[in-house]
Write a structure and sequence with these properties.
about 160 residues; mainly alpha; Arc Repressor Mutant, subunit A; globular
Length: about 160
């Protein structure tokens, strides 16, 4: 299959957009004295009774090796706590503390509003098209990785 001549331009724009988005999101999260991975854990645990470490790793955008440090720092801030699983003695459940729940309830709607500002000038059709194109690209990446015998990090959470 022939590579389109615009591919390097598209790839560069995709990476620039990703970096710009993360920087934008981080500018809001840093005001909460949190990093993006820490906030990812807070919003993933919000409105849950907690989850096993493995599931938390699968649900967040954080690699397994980084998750331990993120949980440690959130625990030091008093926002999460670890507890033994009632069903699996080898597993730990990560839960928000009362302070963590309060932070989630106070900041998550505000953060969503902050992010949604990015889409103020997009029509519903534009947003649907953007979502469809991104899903198609992600599926192409997963298929390409699978064909090469590799699994995506977010599939294996390594």
């Amino acid at each position: 299959m022939k590579t389109p001549t615009t591919f390097p331009t598209v790839l560069r724009e995709l990476l620039r957009t990703h970096q710009a988005f993360l920087s934008y999101a981080a500018s809001h999260v840093h005001k909460l004295d949190l990093t993006l991975p820490q906030f990812d854990v807070i919003i993933t645990l919000g409105n849950t009774s907690g989850m096993p470490y493995k599931k938390l790793g699968e649900e967040t955008l954080i690699t397994k090796g980084t998750l331990t440090g993120v949980i440690n720092r959130l625990e030091d801030k008093g926002l999460v706590q670890r507890g033994a699983s009632e069903t699996d003695g080898r597993s730990q459940i990560i839960r928000l503390t009362e302070a963590g729940k309060s932070l989630f309830e106070r900041t998550f709607p505000e953060h969503l509003q902050f992010i949604n500002q990015l889409f103020n000038n997009y029509s519903p059709e534009d947003i649907s098209t953007l979502e469809a194109v991104l899903v198609r690209l992600r599926e192409a990446v997963i298929a390409a990785r699978s064909e090469g015998g590799e699994k995506l990090a977010d599939e294996t959470n390594e």
